[in-house]
Amino acid sequence: MDHSINIYKDAFSTKALFTVDAAGMVKVDSLEGISEQVAERLKQIFTASPKWIPAIQGKQPIGLRLSQQIAYDPKSEIFRVVEQHPEYTGGMGALFSLFSKNLIYPREAKKADIEGKVFVSFVINKAGEVENAQVEQGIGYGCDQEALRLIELSSGKWIPGKQAGKPVKVRMQLPIVFKP
């Protein structure tokens, strides 16, 4: 779910009833106990989602009605798009310098002559610390673990992102390049 548009004022919880048709398209049937504005945004999110894999009955795709409890707490919101992006103290040059000085090329990768980019996503929290680092696209041979270690080294050295002048959590993605 993309929370790049911040239209919510309070936390909420709702039960969403929706149908995934035989073609994999989603239609929201009902949302209970929330404002029209929030209901409209949730409908947009559901209907803009990629095609779902429909249910199968007797080898034929069929429509299926589903329900899902949805909870939202604006205090824990993670943005992807913000007015002011997080910045590494000293800039991106300093960040890549940190990576190059501390990168330990994994033995397995050297032995197998592996090179490439490991894409890591992570959250910079309101205090400028790294949270929830994970490999989105790896190359294996120990490089994925090394990329995560490097991202963790940068924790606490970020200036947090801001939305409406206030620090917020922001999800980021960076490539870590492995080349012998």
Would you kindly provide a brief summary of this structure?
The protein has 180 residues and is of the alpha+beta class.
Q: How is this structure best described in words?
A:
With 180 residues, the chain is an alpha+beta fold. The chain folds into two domains: 12-76, no CATH class; 87-178, Fusion Protein Consisting Of Minor Coat Protein, Glycine Rich Linker, Tola, And A His Tag, Chain: A, Domain 2. It is built from four helices and twelve strands; from the N terminus they run ββαβββββααββαβββ. The strands form four sheets. Strands 6, 8, 9, 11 and 12 form a five-stranded mixed beta sheet that branches. Strand 1 (12-20) and strand 2 form a beta hairpin. It is a single-pass membrane protein.
Question: Number of DSSP strands?
Answer: 12
User: Please, what is the average pLDDT?
Assistant: 86
Number of helices: 4
CA distance, first residue to last residue = 38 Å
* Main CATH class of the largest domain: Alpha Beta
- Proportion of strand residues: 35-45%
Q: Could you list some keywords that capture this structure?
A:
single chain; 180 residues; alpha+beta; Fusion Protein Consisting Of Minor Coat Protein, Glycine Rich Linker, Tola, And A His Tag, Chain: A, Domain 2; 2 domains; five-stranded mixed sheet; three-stranded antiparallel sheet; 4 helices; disordered N terminus
Q: How is the topology of this model organized?
A:
Blueprint: E1 12-20, E2 26-31, H1 36-48, E3 55-57, E4 60-62, E5 64-72, E6 78-79, E7 87-88, H2 92-102, H3 107-111, E8 116-124, E9 130-137, H4 143-153, E10 158-159, E11 161-163, E12 166-178
Parallel strand pairs: 6-12
Antiparallel strand pairs: 1-2, 1-5, 3-4, 7-10, 8-9, 8-12, 11-12
